[in-house]
Automatic annotation (TrEMBL):
Gene Ontology terms, MF aspect: nucleic acid binding
Region span, Disordered: 367-388
Name of the protein this chain belongs to: Uncharacterized protein
Origin organism lineage: Eukaryota, Viridiplantae, Chlorophyta, core chlorophytes, Trebouxiophyceae
Family listed: Belongs to the mTERF family.
Coiled coil: none
Record bears the keyword Transit peptide: yes
Keywords: Transcription, Transcription regulation, Transcription termination, Transit peptide
Bias kind Gly residues: ranges: 377-388
GO biological processes: DNA-templated transcription termination
């Protein structure tokens, strides 16, 4: 197969969509898809056929597109471009919903009409949904209407419209997912969940009943020097909870081992500004000090490995000016190899699993029953992420 798939990978594709395993030539569809991928991709040096092969390896269900006639496929592509998506945006959406190109224009028009009727949305928002939350295009009209109406009932039309504009994936998940999130926040002591949502609607898609997310909450509570409450973590650091606990909780435990927890701050700019102000105060015989190597929660959660390692080295070097510090500290990669064997990690997971069980006991039974199917059905994004 000139798309670069092995026999096993090709068999996996046909296993996902056995309907396409017939003698009809795939060449007409490839003739449409390959040029689109070549123009819309940022992967230099790879042909359209190779990029199509990459798509099939990552999303075997995309093989469904190969059974389409070239005219029908091109018609669907042209419709997306006429709606306002660029070729790059179409290509970016395919890994999340490869069947977007299989959606007839009339179906997409009906879904757009639902958003206009229920939210007062314009074409620009519909384009954003197709680009950023392409799975919403797979909804039936009834499902999309139910999801939008649930948002409007809870938040009002104007706020629901703004939220979908900032977090289009809210239309790609069952409403029970974010209703559970709000309920969990309240149990965690968040006094005004709606204020949190207004600032960051993306948080509604974080599955707070997942042990991975609660492990991150507990790690932040236990290891940040200012000992924030669960409510404060959700409000100020909630966007980091979706990160792998191996990264967020693991890096916090790593900093604890290195004696660097004291360098953690909630807001690095504010911490630097406050430090500079203290340096301006007159002090007889005081030598100019080197600016501290602060580490923010965002640094811990989001920095690429090389940048995080550099920040740790900088913090160690700064501390070593005033104290004895082991210059042969292990890298985080070395540390993480034994992460699961650390008693602190094992306690963290045990506590997180216990916290999940406790929250489930406190939630209304009807919400929990609805949530079981809703969380399973919303298979994607941040919802239901595993412990990785």
């Amino acid at each position: 197969m000139r798309l670069g798939l092995s026999a096993r990978q090709a068999a996996d594709c046909f296993g996902k969509q056995p309907v396409v395993a017939h003698p009809r030539s795939f060449e007409p569809a490839i003739a449409v898809l390959a040029p689109l991928l070549a123009v819309g991709s940022k992967s230099a040096g790879r042909s359209g056929e190779q990029l199509l092969g990459d798509l099939l390896k990552g999303q075997p269900s995309a093989v469904l597109l190969l059974q389409y006639r070239a005219e029908a496929l091109q018609h669907n592509v042209d419709n997306l471009l006429q709606l306002g998506l660029s070729k790059q945006q179409v290509v970016q959406a395919l890994p999340h919903n490869p069947t977007l190109l299989a959606r007839p224009p009339k179906n997409l028009a009906r879904l757009e009409a639902v958003l206009q009727q229920e939210l007062g949305a314009d074409r620009q928002l519909w384009v954003k949904v197709l680009h950023s939350a392409a799975r919403a295009a797979n909804c039936s009209e009834a499902t999309l209407r139910q999801r939008t109406q649930t948002l409007v009932t809870e938040f009002g039309q104007a706020e629901a419209l703004r939220m979908v504009g900032n977090a289009p994936n809210l239309l790609a998940i069952d409403g029970i997912v974010w209703r559970l999130a709000l309920a969990v926040w309240r149990l965690c002591g968040v006094a005004d969940p709606l204020a949190v949502v207004r600032n960051n609607p993306q948080l509604l898609m974080v599955d707070c009943l997942n042990a991975s997310r609660l492990a991150n909450v507990l790690a932040l509570q236990q290891l940040l020097p200012w000992e924030p409450s669960a409510a404060q973590i959700i409000k100020h650091h909630g966007s980091y909870l979706r990160h792998s606990p191996k990264t967020l909780a693991g890096r916090l435990l790593y900093l604890e081992q290195l004696g660097l927890l004291q360098q953690l701050v909630a807001d690095k700019r504010a911490a630097k500004r406050e430090w500079r102000q203290t340096q301006q105060e007159p002090s007889a015989g005081k030598e100019a000090a080197t600016e501290p190597a602060f580490i923010s929660v965002g640094d811990v959660a989001s920095l690429a490995p090389a940048h995080f390692a550099g920040l740790v080295q900088h913090a160690e070097a700064w501390l070593s000016e005033d104290s004895e510090l082991d210059s042969c500290s292990p890298s985080f990669e070395e540390f993480s190899k034994g992460l699961h064997q650390l008693p602190a990690w094992q306690r963290l997971w045990s506590d997180a699993e216990a916290a999940v069980a406790e929250l489930e006991q406190q939630l209304p039974p009807e919400l929990m029953r609805a949530g079981v199917s809703g969380r399973r059905g919303s298979n994607g994004g941040n919802v239901g992420s595993g412990s990785d």
